[in-house]
Amino acid sequence: MINLEPPKKLRAFVNQAHQVAAEFVRPLSRRYDLAEHAYPKELDMLASMVDGLNQSGQGQGAGAKGVRRQANGDDEDAGVRNGSNLASVLSIMEMSWGDVGLLLSMPRQGLGNSAIASVADDQQLERFDGVWAGMAITEPGCGSDSAAIRTTAEPDGDDYVINGEKIFVTAGDRCDAVVVWASLDRSRGRAAIKSFVVEKGTPGMRVERLDHKLGIRASDTATIVFEDCRVPKANLLGNPEIHDDQGFAGVMQTFDNTRPLVAAMAVGCARAALEVTRDLLRDAGVETDYDRPPHLQPAAAATYLAMEADWEAAYLLTLQAAWMADNDRPNSLQASMAKAKAARTANDITLRCVELAGSVGYSEHELLEKWARDSKILDIFEGTQQIQQLIIARRLLHLTSTDLR
Ligand SMILES: Cc1cc2nc3c(=O)[nH]c(=O)nc-3n(C[C@H](O)[C@H](O)[C@H](O)COP(=O)(O)OP(=O)(O)OC[C@H]3O[C@@H](n4cnc5c(N)ncnc54)[C@H](O)[C@@H]3O)c2cc1C
Q1: How confident is the model at residue 236 (pLDDT cuts 50, 70, 90)?
Q2: Residue 121: CB atoms within 10 Å
Q3: Which residue has the CA at smallest separation from atom 4 of ligand 1?
Q4: Which of 233, 269, 281, 357 is the most exposed place for a label (fewest CB within 10 A)?
Q5: Which residue's CA is the closest to the ligand 1 atom numbered 35?
Q6: Which residue ranges form the domains of the chain, and what is each CATH number?
């Protein structure tokens, strides 16, 4: 069996992330699941610690800020790099083992931060350093089909004037800024869609309401309205030119970096469920034996082994997608494969763990029922299961989005 261990240089960092998740995040898990919309103020201290580690260079690019592609040759391991993308997915796995909702509420680690880290120029990186950024793509009339975005950004002097409504913005209430997808010219289709950093407090931007949810209740999910909201032209991320031949390329680039992060959340959450279930099975006298064929073991043990094998595949795909980003290899296919596999696996595993544990799994005595609820979103946001499969099929079959939709 091929087994990929995390690189040696990241082991201490991963252990540190695990300790934080075990001693700090997991114990808060149930409290903020029950207290939906209450701000987990304990995370402020944790975020300051992460900032301190990043500033001292010991953070290894943890969290969403780490997802930047380095130019060739500027890393000590040029040739084969285990860099900030790999570090990010490994730390996110550990933190999500602690709690996905709380991870999504970590100040300065929003999905908008990944967008900034992925595509911002050096000046923008400096300007938005320390900003906690959410990501606002979805609209009342546009979810999976992001080309249907109706929010507009009209150039006016040194500014863009943004009008539209964004829904389901993770951390939309708590964050300092949102990265908003809007069209510069709706008649030019998807090529005209660009992303803009809009800071909270900008006149014309308001948080309209918060949503109640099935899972990740520690994370706030907001509707944000933009009415004649003026942002400086310097807040556009990437190239302001509209190139009809390049389609979505500019904004889509972000997903190559963020999908492995969501896959990592799924891997971490599923591992949490597997570990608790293993202990519950052991307490019930069911031992899994790695040296005997599954069909010669109790059904619960055979089910457990099958789940672990599935988990391992999701884990390796996630590492592969992040590793490719670290090594400047195009990874759109692998990012979608990792997200599709890991999210579906997490949905299957967490629900099956509830099933294996029976009434204990369904009750609030354990976190199993919570993880089954939390994991569902991982197969929905940053592109649903079906959308990832479409992307994978298009890439493998060399078809365009017009050919296969
Ligand atoms: C808790 C939560 C947090 C979120 N956070 C964010 C965020 O931070 N920022 C943000 O912008 N958005 C966010 N979202 C929105 C999320 O990204 C969308 O819900 C998602 O993209 C799906 O869009 P939709 O809900 O409109 O579903 P739809 O696009 O209407 O899809 C409904 C169903 O149809 C399927 N489907 C759609 N098109 C096809 C097709 N061509 N072929 C086959 N099946 C298809 C989908 O897979 C899905 O199962 C969040 C959502 C939730 C619930």
Answers
A1: very high
A2: 12
A3: 168
A4: 233
A5: 386
A6: 8-122 (1.10.540), 132-237 (2.40.110.10), 249-397 (1.20.140.10)
